[in-house]
Amino acid sequence: MSSLNSQLKGFKSGVVNQGNFVQARRHIASPAPAAQVSPASTPGASGSGGNSSSNAAAIAKRKKPVKNNVVYSQPADTGMGLYIMTQVLHLVEHLKEVEKPLTRADLERFLAKPLDSTMIEILRSHDKLVFDHVTDTYAFKPLHNIRSAQQLLTHLQASTTAQGLSVKELKDGWSGALATIDELEADGSILVTRTKKDGQARMVWINDKSLNVTIDDEFKTIWEKIVIPPAAELPGELERAGLKPTSVDPATIKKAMQKDQGKKQKKPRRGRITNTHLAGMLRDYN
């Protein structure tokens, strides 16, 4: 019993001491925040100058530094993309728009950055660009080297086929293609086919004026007075006029085909003769 009583007294004394410790912690005064500065402690206000300068220095120390998002390991974005092929695409489109050769300095000025050896190698081997080793210039290579009315007429006259030339191909590298086509069409130098929806030029051909034939108005009047019968009655009209039609009436051909299909020859059905040993004894009823 004495040992139990001593343990109980020790437990009670520990609980009492713990309660006093918690109570003592509650009475500890918290320090005043250093970030809050009263108007009296600011520079230029009333009060001691030493306290204001120390408070301002403490505030400056507690300010968070401004984050710098610039990554110095990556190239600067100049608006032309960060990848080489993207920049090459911008250079090709720029050369296509200006329609004249540009030097390396011109291209670097357009990209706002110097061209490295990799970029130079890609530009010189590009299938849409032409590099001149003498002048050290780069130019866009269109599908057809045509940029004037005279060049267009020369190209069409030298053509050995009657396929014509696509206007879409002409506009590749020649911004004034449509205006020149309209002028040559109005002059009668070329023939143009256009779309029905918006009248845009599609194909162009050379107009050989030596093949133009002048027809008298009297002949045109006689030609327009001739009435052509319908296609179904044309063979009959030719026969009544004593002319032989170049083709037979389709209705007659259809009827003849139907008659031929109805008259199919029937082959005689013959059985297999197996009793050949009775050939002299049997009677033939055929």
Automatic annotation (TrEMBL):
Tetramer of two alpha and two beta chains. Belongs to the TFIIE beta subunit family. One of its GO terms (molecular function) is single-stranded DNA binding. One of its GO terms (cellular component) is transcription factor TFIIE complex. Recruits TFIIH to the initiation complex and stimulates the RNA polymerase II C-terminal domain kinase and DNA-dependent ATPase activities of TFIIH. Both TFIIH and TFIIE are required for promoter clearance by RNA polymerase. Residues 72-147 form the TFIIE beta domain. Its main location: nucleus. It holds the Pfam family TFA2_E-tether. GO terms for biological process: transcription initiation at RNA polymerase II promoter. Keywords: DNA-binding, Nucleus, Transcription, Transcription regulation. Residues 30-61, 250-274 are annotated as: Disordered. It comes from the Eukaryota. Residues 30-58 have a biased composition (Low complexity). It is found in: Nucleus. PROSITE patterns: TFIIE_BETA_C. This is Transcription initiation factor IIE subunit beta. PANTHER family: TRANSCRIPTION INITIATION FACTOR IIE SUBUNIT BETA, TRANSCRIPTION INITIATION FACTOR IIE, BETA SUBUNIT. InterPro entries: TFA2_E-tether, TFA2_Winged_2, TFIIE-bsu, TFIIE_bsu_DNA-bd. The keyword Oxidoreductase does not apply.
